[in-house]
Amino acid sequence: MTFNYPKVTRSRQLGSVQEERPAWPNNARCVVAFTVDFDGTGNEVGKGLEPFGAHSAGRYSARRGVDRHLDMLERLGIPATFFVPGYDAECSPDVVKRIAAAGHEVAAHGYVHEGMLLEAEEEVRRLTLTHTILSDLLGTAPRGWRSPSGQKTSVTLPTLRSLGYQYDSSDKDADTPYMLDIGNGQHMVEIPNNTYSLDDFPFFNFSMTPVSEVVEQWKKEFDCRYAEGGFFMLTVHPRAGWGSGTPSRTRAIEETLRYIQRHGDVHFVRLIDLFEHVNQFPQSFDEVRV
Ligand SMILES: [Zn+2]
Fold first, then answer.
1. Mean pLDDT of 140-160
2. What is the pLDDT at residue 171?
3. C-alpha of residue 151 to centroid of ligand 1, in Å
4. Do residues 259 and 219 touch, judged by C-beta distance below 8 A?
5. Which pLDDT score is estimated for 229?
6. Which residues surround ligand 1, an ion (CB under 5 A)?
């Protein structure tokens, strides 16, 4: 078996902190993206579990968590990107419509939050299914995608591109966005997602870290990224259980975002806005051939 590893075809020469920072929108020192992975009952259904009783934490997203996060974002005046599995959009269409009506971006996140690689034909079917569900529901097609499991196959990106997607936010291999050459003269933008220190899941699922310490860790991460590179993306889940939909955990997110806002030279973006910027100034960013 042969593997085709991604190749870096353009890499910015990094010599100093100043050089590590590409030109950002609004001439900001640091670009900040807040992303919410809806992760409702589709997570349990995708694992073959009945989403009731001990397995009902995903239902919290639609019943409480998403609206709590929307209220928080309205208080802060921050735009966000919500990644929504197709199944969750089918179960809770009004909640997904409220996300879009508030001005936030709705992007795709699998059908039942697939945690495994699928045969090519089935993968294409599910990518297309979710795309149709979200497009029909909102009257506008999603342009961004995040793998529910972080995994991709050789058909994933070409299929997404053919459906009109312009960025992926699944990889964990860089600090800042970069161009993806996916072959046949086609490009997408990769917006890397740090699933560990800038995500609620490991803190609340593995280490059961107190919320006060989670806030301190997120602030420290921001401080370092503000100093170098200038890109900070936080990803949370509005579920109960290992998510951040519940009151004290949502307050922890708000405390983190208010801390960031106190830095005057930061610029909050939806990922589609960040795509537009990278696509407009591709020479400022690395390029990787898949
Ligand atoms: Zn997810």
1. 96
2. 95
3. 12
4. yes
5. 80
6. 37, 39, 148
Residue 160 lies in a domain: yes
| Distance (Å) from CA 241 to ligand 1 centroid | 14
Among residues of the chain, what percentage have pLDDT more than 90? Answer: 87
Check whether 19 has a pLDDT greater than 80: no
How many CB atoms neighbour CB 223 within 10 A? 14
Residue 217 is assigned to a structural domain of this protein: yes
Distance 286 CA to ligand 1 centre (A): 26
pTM of the model: 0.95
Digit-coded pLDDT (tens) for 64-76: 999 999 999 999 9
Q: How many domains does the chain have?
A: 1
Per-residue tokens: 229: 């590179």
pLDDT tier at 9 (50, 70, 90 boundaries)? confident
**Separation of CA 264 and ligand 1 centre (Å):** 31
Calculate how far, in angstroms, residue 270's C-alpha sits from the geometric centre of ligand 1: 17
Ligand 1 centroid to Cα of residue 97, in Å, is 19
What's the angle, vertex CA 152, arms to CA 146 and CA 154, rounded to 5? 135
Is residue 290, in this structure, part of any structural domain at all?
A: no
User: What is the CA(85)–ligand 1 centre distance, in A?
Assistant: 8
Report residue 20 as tokens: 């590590």
Q: Is residue 102 part of a domain?
A: yes
Query: What secondary structure does DSSP assign to 138-198, as a single string?
Result: HSS---EE--SSS---TTHHHHHHHTT--EE----S-SS-EEEEEETTEEEEE----TTTT
| d(C-alpha 92, C-alpha 87), whole Å | 9
- Ligand 1 midpoint to CA 263 (Å): 29
**Residue 153 belongs to what domain range?**
25-285
What's the pLDDT tens digit per position in 194-208?
888 999 999 999 999
